[in-house]
């Protein structure tokens, strides 16, 4: 119980911790509460275990009813156990002390529902305002009720917890004191309080309300950074909470400068949406992140909030199954590949690729590449001595019709049509039917192909139609339609004709060569041929662009299996849509009978659960291409082609889109904006702006703003919430010596901070920078400018701002990103190109003379 603090006028003023033991006594109070919570959790775990045990016994009865009941119980108990086990660590983090609610009503969790205080909550007297704390709520990662259903802990996402985040000194509502509790396992380590009504003399259980520390936010922001992001559940700020709890419907757009918490807010929103409507979001939430580094950095946040499985965090270069971007294109190539002009090029390529040599498109990339025919190899034609396989061209000579009419060996010899291009698709189809040779030549085949391609259906899905039109043409050419006057007989004969021809291996081989099943990778690889690409991109790309793109695609190799760039992946996705995947006979899936029981993965210990669940989650992910909610982080960076790719994954989704135009590395924001509008459709949008920079101290933010002013004049910078008193450092390093200077500065910063140091260089210096830092340990990381996106470090070294700014048309905005990664210290190393002044300050970072 806190002792009353009497002032000379007899008021009960808040009791501030002055090292007089209040902190310790408050920690003891919270410890007692945490002990009660753990005790209750243990009871609940026993209950869950008992339920599972009981359910297992019921299963032994063996009747269908008992089994069904067991399954239901197992499921409930499993879910319960899983949540308890995984939330057990560190899950109590907050407390609010509240005035009585206005209407005196309490919700299902036992808390007052009103956010406004009762009219008589505050008594005004000659010595100021007084009030009695009426209710104390503890906030945690999950809700826990005591045996009488009174709330011991409120889930952070429950409405009753909202005042913990929303109340501010300007609009405190019922909250008098907000406390953040730091605990590890079962031990409370510390408490930090914010007083939201500092003018009020509040009492708790008759004593003055104690206040400890200077607020939780500052304590959180000052902590050293590791290589993974932490959740901010204990210190979400009011403007961030508005976004997190915004209704799920349609589209929520969030803008804010560097460090305003956009990524953190987006991830907390995912957890909130799942809490609000788990059933709906069982359809999956997709978080699209710009780089694998940012995925790795953020992927621990959701599990720490008790959410896993339902949320897939994917780098934009890993959105297509079986494709994983491992390289970056040069800015010039990226600019072309990302542009929506590529849609027209790919449309032509998807169709044009049918004309290519067989090996150039189907290749090993195609799982359905035709197996060698089991039929005996046809004899060489008199017209063409080369065998069909020599040319990769197939013609079909077959004897059809009544046995008596079957031609002798002579009539069955295959031929290669004149004008066939070596290595090209077959230009002639020849069959022998009804004792006669029937041939479709290059022109007819071309007409048939053009007819089939007339529609917009995916190319691979048109193959059955192509097959049908070939048979139609052969049937007509055979003269058979004239021979049958009885339609029934004609139909019967036609059926036999079709079946005989189309079941022949050699006809299949012809089809495989003339209408091969195309794979996205093989078509992309085919675009590496400059002449071909120039044909497919006529009037869309200029010769220079064609050359650059073709050269970059050469990396894929002839079979298309070489390394992909981030921008290639969106092209693959587009091709996937243009080509389509033909239906395959269902392969029997290995089924684990236990899999049938939803939630069964919840039934084992954590260690047991992880491996099988991951495979199940991965499989579910593989099968999923459409999500219930899509969150796009760093949305300003998506190219038009990437927007199309992401849009396909959220056709029926609600969306949260977060970004900052001032950090965009894409050169043409208008074009990307249009693609974004197309992906999001015309649904209503809710817009929020975050205004406070929680990452950078004011000294670093101020320097970065100089670049913001150059990059996007007139754009307001977010306000830094704290300052360190340490100005950025400038260290000139002559060009030949950039590496030595960067290493020296990294070492210095490793000494000055407890956590991580990031060294950011222009993209083409990445490898070099890794060499510079060899042996400095894993607290220091070398990054290309584009890789730094979204990440943060205790300290950063930015090497040659001019090199970064000159890298691409969006270079100044990329430099702005690089300069805003540090939470404590920033050093800028400049080369000759930076034209540093006497103090080593690069040209770009000096005060403008105007
Ligand atoms: N309410 C908060 N309490 C504590 N820390 C916070 C809060 N909001 C943001 N932060 C911290 O500020 C830093 C920046 O957050 P985050 O990376 O989400 O910002 P961002 O807007 O996505 O930045 P950028 O656009 O530069 O990538 C992180 O360390 C985050 O944990």
UniProtKB/TrEMBL annotation:
Compositional bias annotation for Basic and acidic residues: 8-24
InterPro entries the UniProt entry points to: DNA_helicase_UvrD/REP (IPR000212), P-loop_NTPase (IPR027417), UvrD-like_ATP-bd (IPR014016), UvrD-like_helicase_C (IPR027785)
GO molecular function: 3'-5' DNA helicase activity; ATP binding; DNA binding; hydrolase activity
UniProt: ATP binding residues: 256-263
Gly residues bias: start-end ranges: 412-422
Keyword vocabulary terms for this entry: ATP-binding, Helicase, Hydrolase, Nucleotide-binding
One GO cellular component term noted in the UniProt record for this chain: cytosol
Keyword Nucleotide-binding: yes
Region listing for Disordered, in residue ranges: 1-24, 103-126, 357-428, 659-682, 830-850
Example GO BP: recombinational repair
Stretches assigned to the UvrD-like helicase ATP-binding domain: 235-697
Composition bias, Low complexity: 380-389, 399-411
PANTHER family in the cross-refs: DNA 3'-5' HELICASE, UVRD / RECB / PCRA DNA HELICASE FAMILY MEMBER
Protein's name in the database: UvrD-like helicase ATP-binding domain-containing protein
């Amino acid at each position: 119980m806190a002792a009353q603090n009497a002032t000379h006028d007899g008021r009960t003023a808040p009791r501030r911790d002055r090292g007089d033991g209040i902190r310790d006594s408050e920690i003891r109070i919270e410890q007692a509460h945490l002990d009660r919570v753990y005790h209750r959790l243990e009871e609940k775990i026993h209950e869950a275990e008992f339920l599972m045990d009981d359910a297992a016994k019921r299963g032994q009865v063996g009747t269908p009813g008992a089994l069904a009941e067991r399954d239901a119980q197992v499921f409930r108990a499993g879910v319960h156990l899983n949540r308890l086990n995984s939330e057990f660590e560190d899950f109590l983090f907050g407390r609010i002390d509240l005035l009585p609610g206005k209407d005196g009503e309490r919700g299902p969790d036992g808390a007052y529902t009103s956010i406004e205080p009762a009219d008589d909550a505050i008594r005004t007297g000659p010595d100021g305002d007084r009030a009695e704390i009426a209710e104390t709520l503890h906030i945690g990662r999950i809700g826990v009720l005591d045996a009488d259903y009174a709330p011991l802990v409120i889930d952070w996402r429950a409405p009753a917890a909202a005042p913990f985040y929303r109340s501010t000194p300007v609009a405190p509502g019922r909250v008098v004191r907000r406390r953040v509790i730091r605990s590890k396992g079962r031990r409370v380590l510390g408490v930090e309080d914010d007083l939201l009504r500092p003018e009020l003399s509040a009492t708790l259980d008759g004593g003055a309300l104690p206040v400890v520390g200077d607020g939780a936010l500052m304590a959180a922001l000052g902590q050293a950074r590791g290589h993974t992001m932490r959740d901010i559940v204990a210190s979400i700020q009011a403007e961030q909470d508005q976004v997190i709890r915004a209704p799920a419907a349609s589209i929520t757009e969030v803008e804010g400068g560097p460090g305003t918490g956009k990524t953190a807010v987006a991830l907390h929103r995912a957890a909130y949406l799942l809490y609000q409507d788990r059933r709906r979001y069982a359809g999956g939430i997709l978080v699209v992140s710009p780089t694998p580094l940012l995925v790795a950095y953020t992927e621990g946040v959701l599990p720490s909030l008790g959410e896993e499985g339902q949320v897939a965090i994917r780098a934009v270069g890993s959105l297509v199954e079986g494709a994983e971007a491992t390289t970056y294109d040069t800015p010039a190539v990226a600019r072309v590949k990302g542009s929506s002009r590529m849609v027209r090029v790919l449309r032509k390529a998807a169709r044009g690729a049918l004309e290519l040599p067989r090996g150039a498109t189907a290749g090993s990339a195609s799982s359905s590449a035709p197996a060698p025919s089991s039929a005996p190899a046809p004899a060489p034609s008199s017209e063409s001595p080369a065998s069909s396989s020599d040319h990769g061209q197939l013609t079909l000579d077959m004897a059809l019709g009544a046995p008596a009419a079957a031609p002798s060996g002579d009539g069955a010899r295959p031929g290669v049509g004149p004008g066939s291009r070596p290595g090209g698709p077959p230009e002639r189809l020849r069959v022998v039917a009804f004792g006669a040779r029937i041939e479709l030549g290059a022109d007819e085949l071309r007409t048939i192909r053009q007819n089939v391609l007339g529609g917009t259906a995916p190319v691979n899905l048109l193959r059955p139609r192509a097959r049908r039109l070939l048979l139609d043409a052969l049937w007509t050419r055979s003269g058979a339609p004239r021979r049958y006057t009885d339609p029934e007989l004609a139909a019967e004969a036609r059926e036999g004709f079709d079946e005989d021809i189309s079941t022949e291996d050699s006809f299949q081989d012809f089809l495989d060569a003339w209408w091969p099943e195309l794979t996205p990778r093989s078509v992309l690889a085919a675009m590496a041929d400059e002449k071909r690409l120039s044909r497919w991109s006529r009037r869309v790309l200029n010769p220079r662009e064609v050359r650059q793109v073709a050269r970059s695609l050469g990396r894929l190799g002839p079979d298309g299996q070489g390394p992909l760039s981030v921008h290639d992946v969106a092209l693959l996705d587009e091709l996937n849509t243009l080509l389509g995947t033909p239906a395959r006979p269902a392969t029997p899936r290995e089924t684990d009978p236990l899999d049938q029981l939803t939630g069964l993965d919840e039934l084992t210990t954590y260690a047991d659960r992880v491996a099988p669940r991951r495979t199940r989650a991965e499989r579910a992910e593989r099968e999923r291409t459409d999500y219930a909610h899509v969150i796009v982080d760093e949305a300003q960076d998506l190219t038009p082609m990437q927007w199309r790719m992401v849009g396909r994954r959220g056709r029926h989704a609600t969306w949260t889109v977060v970004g900052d135009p001032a950090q965009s590395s894409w050169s043409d924001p208008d074009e990307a904006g249009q693609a974004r509008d197309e992906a999001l459709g015309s649904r209503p949008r809710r817009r929020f702006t975050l205004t406070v920079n929680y990452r950078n101290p004011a000294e670093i933010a101020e320097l970065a703003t100089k670049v913001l002013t150059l990059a996007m004049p007139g754009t307001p910078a977010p306000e830094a919430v704290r300052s360190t008193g340490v100005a950025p450092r400038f260290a000139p390093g002559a060009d030949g010596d950039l590496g030595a200077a960067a290493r020296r500065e990294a070492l210095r910063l490793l000494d000055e901070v407890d956590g991580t140091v990031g060294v950011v260089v222009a993209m083409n210096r990445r490898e070099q920078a890794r060499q510079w830092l060899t042996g400095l340990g894993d607290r220091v990381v070398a990054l290309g400018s584009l890789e730094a996106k979204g990440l943060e470090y205790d300290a950063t070294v930015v090497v040659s701002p001019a090199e970064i700014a000159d890298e691409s048309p969006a270079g100044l905005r990329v430099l702005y990103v690089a300069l805003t990664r540090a939470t404590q210290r920033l050093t800028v190393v400049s080369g000759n190109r930076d034209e540093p002044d006497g103090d080593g300050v690069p040209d770009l970072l000096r005060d403008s003379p105007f």
